[in-house]
Fold this protein.
Amino acid sequence: MAFGVQIKNTSGDLIVSSDIKTYHYIGSPSYSGVQYRYNNYSGSRIYRYTLNSAGTPLVFIKPADTNKFYAVLTHFHSGNNWTYDVIGSGTSDQPPTLYAFAALSGNTASSETYGVMVKDSSGNRTFDSRDLPLAVVDIVSAIPPEHAPDGGITSTSNVDPGWHDCNIANYRSGMEHDFTSDDTHTDYSYSNSGHNSNYMFAAPSIAQAAYRKNGYHYHCDGCGKWWEANQYHTFTGNLGVFYRQAYKLTSSQIQAGWCSVKEYWWGNAEKTSWSPLNSECDGSGSFGIPFSQKSINRVSNSVIVADATNYV
Amino acid sequence: MAFGLTIRNSSGDIFYDTTVIGGNFLGTFTANANSNASFTIPHANLITTLYTQIFMINDLPTNQEALAHTISVSNGVVTATKQGNSSQSQTTQVVILGK
């Protein structure tokens, strides 16, 4: 560099530069409520937040419960209005607190006349201690296990759930699997020497997974019995669960895991006889799971850890 | 501290200490659905370690096989490559960090 400021640590890592815009705290997004609840297996909630920012924000999650998994599920914006959906595991509402950061724009609103400010060659601020620069504690590349269910990958071979007449719901227990996901995670250590209850992390949920069980039953009353009319009983059904990637931040680890988000359940039972030909118990509907027996978008993604104490 | 920079708030508490900073924001860009995109990292020669973080934007959380872009980095350029067909490909935001 011919001019400007560079601050490096003893490892040679660049920490502050007049050439690169450090992210600074812009506020805590407003919580607007629960968008979606799922209460089976490990359960999940989708929490919604809104934020106004001229620049593209980076949002951190301070968990409401350190035993739960969280991640930014998706976001969308119109102009300066940003909306974030955050997923959290569990069967109770525990919205986390969010903290948002963005590159500096314009002049500071602070009345303080002291501190450290760095500008680039155009005179734009890249670092200003009065606007609370983001102090990253650590960055960890994390990836969840390939298969989300605690019971492992399901078999697509048909299971026989028995015959339950028109009670479609009664077929389900015979098709169950351990679809919970609390215990399925990959663990990573991070620089936690200063850990406290205000630690937060920024991490997206892009990996998805879906697994299914298939059920089939057939029997015939009367077949082979000359004194009884043939009556055929057939059931087909599918039970599947859809997952999204999420993370748990403990005092010593980042755990990359999964949240069960939605289930897909469908069954069709038919009872027919030769005379008169009839059909009963048609469950109708369709299964509808978008894919199954795999995870997608499963790549190493960065989890950024910081201390929210500085921004509370 | 024997080296580096610490910044204290008005209460005298240290809130920024270069000896414990673990990374920095370098830039962000958006790759639209069904399109590739790239981003040149400013002053990439100053960075020893790069990290990328990818988000999907506007995806349907539960009803779609939604595919994010894959990310590659070469010579200070981050490239996002679309995946799948037009109904699977999602808009992806890429955040680049480093130290």
Observations:
- Chain A has two domains: 6-140, 146-185+208-298.
- Chain A is about 0% helix and 45% strand.
- Residues 6-140 of chain A form one domain.
- Chain A touches chain B through 66 residues (CB under 8 Å).
